[in-house]
Structures are given as structure tokens and as C-alpha cells.
Write a structure and sequence with these properties.
The chain is mainly beta and 120 residues long. The chain has no helices and eleven strands. β5 and β6 form a beta hairpin.
């Protein structure tokens, strides 16, 4: 069973930075996509950033220019660098990964979530 272990959440003041890391239990290159979702209280879970196996990245409009997703091959992890954080970024952040199958929809895996709290 694939496990995704997140780290790096915490509390920060507005304007600050945090770096989240997601380490899967197998090679990051075995996944078709890896990325981050977030869910704030009372809101639906929303996509934050994704990195596709070829290296292409996509971001939610709300985080473009502030967040950066990257692969760390040495750590076998996918990181999310979050800069210029605001209170609107407060949420539980979930790492996710997909793995293509020879037939049917891809397998989807989720981490346990890590809390990010931004105080103004």
C-alpha cells in the first residue's frame, strides 16, 4: 500500500513562508502526478499545485507567483514552497499522487494532511 508522508506545516505570520514536503513510500517517478490540495474549514478541498511526471507544473490562480512545487530527487520527495502567505492560505494541506494503470481510472493516494495556519 502506498503511503504519502507530509511534513513542514505549522504557524506563520502573514507575509512569511513555509515549505511542505511529501515523501512517498516508493519512488516519486512511479507516479503520474503528485501535488497538493488544501481544505479550509467550511470549504471544499481545492487543488493548489501539481507536478506531472514530465515535469510540467500547474497552479491554482490564487497561489500563482507565490507557491512553487518541485521534485527533490535526492530526498525522493515533492516539495511545496509557499511564500507571501496570507490568512486565506490557512487550511489543511494534503499531498496526493496518482498512478496510471493499464486499464481503468488511475489509482489515487492521499496523505494524512498537515495544518498550515497564517496569522495576520
Amino acid at each position: 500500500q502506498v503511503r504519502l508522508v507530509e511534513s513542514g506545516g505549522g504557524s506563520v505570520q502573514a507575509g512569511g513562508s513555509l515549505r511542505l514536503s511529501c515523501a512517498p513510500s516508493e519512488s516519486i517517478f512511479r507516479f503520474t502526478t503528485m501535488g497538493w490540495y488544501r481544505q479550509a474549514p467550511g470549504n471544499e478541498r481545492e487543488l493548489v499545485a501539481v507536478i506531472i511526471s514530465g515535469g510540467t507544473t500547474n497552479y491554482a490562480d490564487a497561489v500563482k507567483g507565490r507557491f512553487a512545487i518541485s521534485r527533490d530527487n535526492a530526498k525522493n520527495a515533492v516539495d511545496l514552497q509557499m511564500n507571501r502567505l496570507g490568512s486565506e492560505d490557512t487550511a489543511v494541506y494534503y499531498c496526493y499522487a496518482t498512478k496510471r494503470k493499464s486499464y481503468g481510472p488511475p489509482d489515487v493516494y492521499w496523505g494524512q494532511g498537515t495544518q498550515v495556519t497564517v496569522s495576520s
